[in-house]
What we know:
The complex is a heterodimer of chains A (98) and B (625). Chain A is an all-alpha fold and 98 residues long. Chain A has helices at 2-32, 39-61, 64-67, 80-97. In chain A, helix 2 packs antiparallel against helix 4. Chain B has 625 residues and is mostly helical. Chain B has a four-stranded antiparallel sheet, with helices on one face. In chain B, helix 4 (61-72) runs antiparallel to helix 14 and helix 8 (133-167) runs antiparallel to helix 18. The longest helix of chain B is centred in the N-terminal third of the chain and has 50 residues, at 171-220. Chain B is globular.
Amino acid sequence: MTDLLNSISAAINTIFGPPLRAFFHPIDTALAMHYIPGAMLIARVVALSFFIGTMIWVFVGLKREYVNLEAPSKHFYHDLRLWVIVSMLPHLVVYFYF
Amino acid sequence: MYESVLGFVQGAAEQVGGGLAGIDITIVIMYMVGVFILGTFFSKYVKSAGDFFVASRALPFWAIGMSIVVSDIGATDFVAVAGGAYTDGIAIANFDWMGSMPAMVFAAFVFVPYFWRAGVYTIPEFLGKRYNTAVRVIHGGIWGVFLLTMLALMLWVTGDQLSNTILGWNPYFVVWVMVIVTGIYTFSGGLSAVVMTDVVQLIIMFVGGIALLILSLWEVGGPAELQRKVLDLRPRVMVTLQAEKELPTGSITGVIEGAGFDVIRTKRVPIPGEDQSNKFLLRLDSVEIPATADENIARVREKARAVIASAMADAYGGEDKIKLNELVTYDGHFELLLPHDTDKPYPWTGIVFGLGIVLAIAYMSGNQAVVQRTLGARSEWDAKGGMLFGGFLKSFIPLMVAVPGLCALVLTPDLPDAERAVPHMIATLLPPGLRGLMFVALFAALMSSVDSTLNSAATIWTNDLYGRFMHLATGRNITEHHALIVGRVFTLIFIVLAGVLAPWVGRAEGLYVFIQTALSMFQGPTLAILLLGIMWPRATRWGGLAGLVCGVAFTTILNNVEGLFPSKDPFLFVAWWSFVFSLAVTIIVSLLTPREPDEKIRGLVWGQIMKDGEIQRVLGERISS
């Protein structure tokens, strides 16, 4: 059984390896970003954008009524948009510093 | 009276060979009894399948959030995440930060309202309605088998690795105590019992985790000292030599020094049960790891590895006789985002795209244990709020788990097995009483995962497998009362089966890896057809089928072709690319095949559910009935 699986794995590697490597290696080289000084700053900006983009989506992309449907009250502490901000701010701080 | 009870407890501890003091054993027993009573208390509220599977839709947001977190974090995570921090640094925390909060926000405002309003109980149920029954049964079957295997594995890992390895307790004894306690309260109280015991278990887990965090940092000298001491650690290399005779330690040191490196410390590493006569752990002084603009740390580290390997091969005759198991440096231990071509398993591109966008959303939206809690909410607001509160609580997990792992690196830098970091810290740092509390926290982490998995497995098997089978056989859906009985029978069967299979599954490492691999192959493709099925009315049954089948085939190919990605374990990249590929295939095939009739997708597409007043009214009536 193990031999059969190894043979299948080897066949897949032989058949699909060359075209897939030709496709993925340029992408890997580009993403490694050795040609850009301070490349990891880009990584940090992308990571922070992921969190900030999510917050903007909740605030701008979704209606307040939809977000807070069936809320117990209209008090600010029952506004789930505020919950998103409070939950995500620590992440922003962490990804900013580390 | 107290003395006689304490004497009994100490006697019991000695009988099972325990390493805990009497007070610790008392705490463990009190916890077990308390959780058992609390769990069975909720049995009086279970009168129908709705009570059993979705807690009568009465759960508040705080209980949902706490339950989601504690179900997700098992005792094995405590051990494995701390081990990951010990080996690879804080990048492991990405799984609880980047891999949780954005996905939980997305789930809270897209999937939760969708499931809530569409009245769908399980993901396979949705896939069956949107595409066809075959997809439902296949998907339900895979998850059903996976959850059952996970149950057995969780039980065995705790029984064997935690209780037997650390305390010397009989693993079968621990496994069957877990089976009896969790089995009875999950059987009698259903989701209500599971969620309410989870609340207690989360509080205990946080108290134990914070105690360990504070004591670990105290011992190291504070956060700033921790960072300084970790970054000051010398690189270490583990070398295995296949030689017919035992080699002297000095001989290895001489060769390494001859290659241009200063050796600070050499240590022969014993691993029980293996012939380790020629396995060495060396701590090096001057491995050159300066990063330059065109040569990053990973490449320089690889060069150092090559120089050492070459010198060792020259000295001992042939590269086949020498193996450099690992060369660990600590320069990136406080970096959350590692370069794309890092030799560690968490490159930033994989973390953002593979984890943040694919695996995290697939887990938070497609995991039955998570979805089921939100369906038990008392209102849509509580369901959404529960997800957000859970995400907030989950942010603290790395502090309680990963930081003690880093502290262990400073206090005991030469552990042969990184996963022993937390057990070692518990054994050496915590005083009697707190040690018992920490063990209760580990048991709580395990039991909360076991009861949630058990309840979810029973739900899937009852609704998606047994229910579909009975519908095909009799032409009728099963009644609420029938579903309740079947759900309880499945609960009973699964927990007993898990207990019986636990040693076998725990030891059959290949089986677990195979099932994990099989499940991971479905994550990207399933998310692709799930998203398109919900968001895009034009997605057709043929598009969904092609997307799923071709996506799984593509994942298989990516997993078998060597050298595609820089990471040694490229599962994050595989998840991302299989998702993209399935998305493309589903869209192309859907556009080439006839669109689905309106009546089939009515009430199943997000836009209709959110905006169409008539459909909202029909769905509302269905849910309230």
